[in-house]
Amino acid sequence: MKIYLYPNLDKTHCFEYTTATYERLHKNGAKLFMDRCYKHVFGKLDITFCSEDECVKQCDMIVAIGGDGTILKCSLKGCEFEKPILGINCGRLGFMASLEHSQLELLDKLFSGEYTLSRRMMLNVNVECGGENKSYTALNDVAVTKADDCKIADFEVSKNGRLISSLRADGVILSTATGSTAYSMSAGGPIIEPEMKCIEFTQICAHSLFARSMILSEDSVMKVKCHTNSGSHAIVSVDGNNVFRLSAEDTVIVSKSKYFVEIIDISGGSFFSSINKKLMQPLKESAEDGI
Length: 291
Prior knowledge:
There is one protein chain. The chain is α/β, with parallel strands linked by helices. Helix content is about 20%, strand content about 40%. The strands form three sheets. A six-stranded parallel beta sheet has the order 3-2-1-4-5-6, sandwiched between helices. The longest helix is centred in the C-terminal third of the chain and has 19 residues, at about 270-290.
């Protein structure tokens, strides 16, 4: 089995967890690959170092060691080359990670085939600006928000050419089911089972008594326009990264991507376990402690 190790060394203790992951996988006979930029860190280990594209092409799967952000970054290569991703969490929440860093013994299941694949829908994002088009792919979400130079912003959101919402707000979020536990949830959106194929529309701090999220079909083509004061702007963020600064007549079009990513679930029901342990459990513990 060929495995591409994708660590995020900005995370505390990630070096130790990556080394422990290597030892477990190597013990099971895996051939391991890593981006050559890490050769000065892990060069003493029995790892093949090459370019990221070459690593992904040659591997059977990707093991991302970090948090959800780490999985989001490597998902772009994973979907391009159709390679499944296993996440090992050494961050905080880690909704997409199947394993915590304390569960590395479960990596043995990769070699006996004791795991399932969770197929996740992705979004295609097109930004139309002054006759120029820019395209991006998102696993979690696309957010269109007012920039720091903007006091008031009005948004128009349409589906398949029909206006469905006109609102004054700080911004709007269009997310996948996978992204429903990210920015959208923090803005009041519902949690959606991650294998569902849909687009979730959530408003951010809307000036309205009736601001509610909408769940739209997977074949929806969503168009967002932002109207700001003269000289002010809006920002487009794709999976948490600011990618473009919008002017008044620019348009963002979001639809289902032709790409998908497969997330390896090695512990069984990891999504619902994460919901219980990482969202509900702290509330239960606070109640039990009388807080």
